[in-house]
Amino acid sequence: MSIRPSASRLDGVDVLRGIAILTVLLNHVNMRLFLADIPYTVGLPHQLVATLFWSGQRGVQIFFAVSGFLITSTSIRRWGALSQVAAPAFYRLRFARIAPLLGLLLLVLSLLHFAGVKHYVVSEDTGGLGRALLAALTFNINWLEATRGYLPGNWDILWSLSVEEMFYLFFPLTRWVRGKLLLAVLGVFIVLGPVARTVFSAGNEVWHEYSYLGGMDAIAFGCLTAILLDGRALTRRTLRWSAAAGVTLLTFSLGFSSLSAAVRLEAIGLDMTVVAVGTCLVITAAAQSGWTAPRFLQPLTRLGQRSYEIYLTHMFVVFALFGWFRSPVVLLFAATILLSALLGEAVARLYSEPMNQRLRGQKPTLTPDPNGLY
Predict the structure, then answer these.
(1) Residue 226 half-sphere exposure, CB side, CA atoms within 13 Å?
(2) What is the count of structural domains for the chain?
(3) Distance from C-alpha of 335 to C-alpha of 319, rounded to nearest angstrom
(4) Is residue 2 part of a domain?
């Protein structure tokens, strides 16, 4: 079956991913400072600290919603309809995008473990290196950490890939689960998301944040957005309202988390639902308006374009810089963002994108097709 080329990139989506990866970077530097008991936030407003340094989980929720939308909308373009998705081709494309860098990361982490390098040794309490590798390759890092405890930082970040890869594993079932039944299934995931983050987590701190269902509702929102937009052209007024509502919800989620907690949205698991809905409303406006990011947002857009490479490699930068210096803290944050971006760009250009193209049967070029990221 022939595969149609995918459409051009969406600046609005890349900006969302840029915001998401930025929250993750800030969060992980903050965690190192927090665990080292360095009181660098003394005197700062509580909400400012929460927004800048404790929003990583919300950033990952943005990633999940974006992934659901991109995979669904791109699949519709490639095969004409979800009912026509060819599982072998779908898995090959996902493997080409994800496996090269993930495989290299696991190799490097294994070597660092055997070398006994601090921050990279997998404790026997969590099952050792073999169990961590098995979990990474079978999409259950989150399950392992919920039952055995946290893995080292470079391993811990793979929990979100476990959620996304489980989504990819079952996505081709949309070939048979169609129409209203598909919408009903997505609706079930949306409803179960908040329940998974509260009732199902049963007080388990890791499972509260890392569970499959706890992230699958955002993915389902993204899928639903792509399905509802397929073949529809919204009016300019509707798109403006969608953009305004989405930005408002994301601003509330990221900038007013204290208020979210006060009205008990976190207690009932709806705080992350608000993030997903806001993300999808912004995606809706971006997907149909043809919005182009202004020049001052280009760095953020580029971060979004390289978010996968930055996400998988940034902990090397975090640990290296934290071991080198911790003050001034502002410089530590700035250096981490800059060097993580440069490392992600280098890895993408020199390795992951060329490998992606080879595995897709394309001739590697110095200017890879950006749509291959999808």
Answers:
(1) 23
(2) 1
(3) 12
(4) no
Give residue 39's identity as a one-letter amino acid code.
P
SS3 for 119? coil
* Pair 148, 127: CB distance under 8 Å: yes
Closest alpha carbon to 58 in 245, 212, 273, 213: 273
**For residues 36 and 46, what is the distance between their CA atoms, to the nearest angstrom?**
19
Q: Name residue, tokens 């995931």.
A: 189
Q: Is residue 5 part of a domain?
A: no
**Per-residue model confidence as pLDDT tens digits over 252-303:** 999 999 999 999 999 999 999 999 999 999 999 999 998 999 999 999 999 9
Residues in CB range of 252: below 8 A, 6 or more apart: 259, 260, 274, 278
Name the 3-class secondary structure at 25: helix
Q: Which two tokens stand for residue 206?
A: 């890791």
Measured in degrees and rounded to the nearest 5, phi and psi for residue 296 equal -70, -15
The answer to whether position 4 is within a domain reads: no
- Can you read off the two tokens belonging to residue 275? 């993030």
Query: How far is it, in rounded angstroms, from Cα 25 to Cα 69?
Result: 23
Q: State which amino acid sits at residue 128.
A: G
Domain-located, residue 289: yes
Q: Which domain holds residue 150?
A: 11-373
Structure pTM?
Answer: 0.95
Q: How far is residue 204's CA from residue 137's CA, in Å, rounded to a whole number?
A: 24
How far apart CA 132 and CA 81 sit, in angstroms, is 37
